[in-house]
């Protein structure tokens, strides 16, 4: 497998990847206020049945990401794109923000996402960045586990972040 910068001709293959996922768990948020404090707790909750979840982002942004000319990588094997990652630079706090990370369904859990993250971290370090950051839906338990396995730590949330009013979880990792 080769991880390399994306070319314009790769964008259709990136768009064609199945971005949805299946989950049996979610991170459920519990919030309480009292005695001058706000307490927020996330706990893993098992769902009564498996749930397929659509990717919450707009695919039209991929072309804009490519045009930005920052970090946009594909993982390919035998000329076939198996996954991609695009990342924008937030130079004012030396952070690479992973905007999208997707791996073809048939190739998940084979190290492709990890290889893409590794190459993105290398790209970011070469440009003087000191951390990677990303956001995930509370429903995307497979991605939460993936991030934790790859050294990312939960660092915050934003209620009603997505257009579907879902909660975004933020994860970061020093590089």
Note down, in words, how this protein is organized.
With 175 residues, the chain is α+β, with helices and mostly antiparallel strands. It has one domain: Aminopeptidase, CATH 3.40.630. It is 22% helix and 47% strand. It is built from four helices and nine strands, in the order βαββαβββαβαββ. The protein has helices at 11-16, 61-68, 112-126, 141-149; strands spanning 2-5, 21-34, 37-53, 71-77, 80-90, 95-103, 131-137, 153-158, 168-174. The strands form two sheets. The protein has a seven-stranded mixed sheet, sandwiched between helices. The chain has a two-stranded antiparallel sheet with strand order 2-3. The longest helix has 15 residues, at 112-126. The protein starts with a strand and ends with a strand. The mean pLDDT is 94.
Task: Looking at this protein, list some descriptive labels.
single chain, 175 residues, alpha+beta, Aminopeptidase, seven-stranded mixed beta sheet, two-stranded antiparallel sheet, 4 helices, 22% helix, globular
At a glance:
The protein is an alpha+beta fold and 175 residues long. The chain has helices spanning 11-16, 61-68, 112-126, 141-149, and strands spanning 2-5, 21-34, 37-53, 71-77, 80-90, 95-103, 131-137, 153-158, 168-174.
DSSP strand (E) fraction? over 45%
DSSP strand tally: 9
Number of domains: 1
* Fourth-level CATH superfamily: Gcn5-related N-acetyltransferase (GNAT)
Low-confidence stretches: none
Estimated helix fraction: 10-25%
Strand count, sense and closure of the main sheet?
Answer: 7 strands, mixed
Query: Can you list the strand order of the major beta sheet?
Result: 1-4-5-6-7-9-8
* Whole-number mean pLDDT: 94
The best one-word shape is: globular
Q: Give the N-terminus to C-terminus distance in angstroms.
A: 23 Å
Rounded radius of gyration (Å): 17 Å
CATH architecture: 3-Layer(aba) Sandwich
> What class, by secondary structure content?
alpha+beta
Instruction: Give the ordered list of helices and strands.
Output: EHEEHEEEHEHEE
CATH class: Alpha Beta
Task: Please report the number of helical segments.
Answer: 4
CATH topology group: Aminopeptidase
């Amino acid at each position: 497998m080769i991880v390399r910068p994306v070319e314009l001709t790769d964008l259709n293959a990136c768009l064609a990847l199945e971005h949805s996922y299946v989950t049996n768990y979610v991170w459920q948020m519990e919030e309480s206020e009292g005695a001058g404090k706000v307490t927020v707790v996330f706990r893993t909750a098992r769902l009564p049945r498996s749930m397929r979840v659509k990717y919450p982002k707009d695919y039209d942004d991929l072309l804009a990401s490519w045009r930005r000319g920052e970090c946009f990588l594909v993982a390919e094997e035998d000329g076939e794109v198996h996954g991609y990652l695009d990342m924008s630079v937030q130079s004012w706090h030396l952070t690479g923000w992973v905007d999208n990370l997707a791996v073809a369904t048939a190739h998940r859990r084979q190290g492709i996402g990890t290889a893409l993250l590794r190459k993105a971290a290398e790209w970011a370090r070469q440009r003087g960045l000191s951390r990677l950051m990303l956001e995930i839906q509370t429903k995307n338990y497979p991605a939460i586990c993936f991030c934790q396995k790859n050294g990312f730590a939960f660092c915050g949330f934003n209620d009603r972040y997505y257009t579907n009013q879902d909660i975004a979880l933020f994860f970061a990792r020093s590089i």
